[in-house]
Amino acid sequence: MATEPLSQKEIEDRLRELPGWSLDGNRIARTYRLGTHFAAAALVVHVAGIQDELDHHSDLTLGYNTVALTVNTHSAGGAVTDLDFELARRVEDVAPGHGAS
């Protein structure tokens, strides 16, 4: 997958396809609120598996019933790339109810 930085317009266009995700500085970010701490911890395990499959890792924070992710591509100078959006899309696929924040 290409690791070339995306333009601001490309990022904005792709974010429209991922409700709940936003640009936070030079990263894309999303917080999921789940019903219980156990559900949040389970989502973290699923996300860790996806990250290992892609060999691409986000900053991932587990709260009581929340999971927060922020991601950019270090090998592209900390820019947002296709790889970040692939990770975001895959996380959306496993998030309960697509994780309304």
Characterization of the model:
This protein has 101 residues and is α+β, with helices and mostly antiparallel strands. Helix content is 40%, strand content 20%. A four-stranded antiparallel beta sheet has the order 1-2-4-3. Helix 2 (37-54) packs antiparallel against helix 3. The radius of gyration is 13 Å and the shape is globular. The N and C termini lie far apart (28 Å).
Topology of this structure?
Elements: H1 8-16, E1 22-24, E2 27-33, H2 37-54, E3 59-62, E4 66-71, H3 82-94
Antiparallel strand pairs: 1-2, 2-4, 3-4
Helix pairs in contact: 2-3
Number of helices: 3
Shape: globular
C-alpha Rg (nearest Å): 13 Å
Order of helices and strands: HEEHEEH
Mean pLDDT: 94
Poorly predicted segments: none
In helices, the fraction of residues equals 25-40%
Percent in strands: 15-25%
What is the rounded distance between the termini?
28 Å
Structural class: alpha+beta
**Strand order in the largest sheet:** 1-2-4-3
Number of strands: 4
Main sheet summary:
4 strands, antiparallel
